[in-house]
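We now fix the convention by which a protein and its fold are recorded. Here is one such record, which you should read through line by line:

>
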Amino acid sequence: MQIDYKRIIFWAILSLIFIGIVIFLIINISQEKKIEILWPIGGEALKAGETYQIKWRATSNVNKVGILLIKGEINPESRWLAKDISAREGKYDWPVFVWEKTGQDYKIAVLEYPWQQGKAVAYSNLFTITGPEFASCDQFSIDAEWPFIPSDYPGLRRVFITQSSYDGNLGNLDGADAKCQTEAESLNLGGQWKAFLGNDKVLATERISHEGIFVEATPQGTLPLNKTCYRLLGKNFDEFFKKLTNYQLKNEASLDLEFMKRLKDIWLGRVISESKKECLFMPDIIGGENSPKNYSLTATCQNWTTNASELKKSEQTEEQFPECYTPAGKKIAALGLGGLVSGLIGDGANQLFVIDAAASCASEHHLLCIEEIPQSATSTAK
């Protein structure tokens, strides 16, 4: 009888594979799931604003992990630092939030994800988070009765208003951005800059990143290590925008006088969705409220491409005129060309700063320029 060695070898290999799979399953099913935190182990002092690497080790039957930051022992507060990370990764870069509360009662939990009671979890011992070390601007804040913030504070967004003024032909939004960039370079500010300006399609608030802390770009005084202080405009975009859009003149003394002076005279275009698109009344144009020249068919100087004050006769077509009405209810075919600007309304102590005044495209106004990328914690004033 002839022995079929090929068949014997085939079945032997197949049996070994089967036995291996069974052993693997038995080990993984029976093996206790474990996670061990390698760093932090406890006792460390971490500085807010810095980045640290959390490290762990997990058994092979732990697939995914999540990481929690826990503060407090009696009534602990916790929040996720990361979710759904491969357990085999074994590390995670954690940028400690710059405004994290300081304290000596922090710990890390690395747990099997998605988490439910009974799954593997490991805790570090307690460690400390300290605040970042910044130069002090207290004296400037006291003298000016207005908050100042040091130049080494992370996430600063500098803001300035151009010294030059421009008519409505800005070369569209890109041209306005280029004007901000050119003036920033002439002032040795560095960075990348955008004009706070909207057109018929894009609102000014949509063009600007809302991250960071907003400060005047002009530095105040000198601190050690080539640092300086910036006048605070807003701890976040919402606060900055609130001051920009609802700002009483009585606060003028708290801001830089030159900055405040120019702030009353800047091109803005459509800032928010409620901004008008047409039928702007321009009271400074000679003609009065019943003249078509006093009503603009654009709020952004034809998307910032014209410095004309009114449509030429050759450009006038009845279809393009919006339905504008005077305060008396008279229908007007708007012939004027204008844009939305900042300005003052009211009299005396009751004057208010507004962002929806109207001006002819032939008039000249400044640009409000905002730094695009927040400055890092290590950058210094230039």
Q: What stands out?
A: The chain has a mean pLDDT of 82.
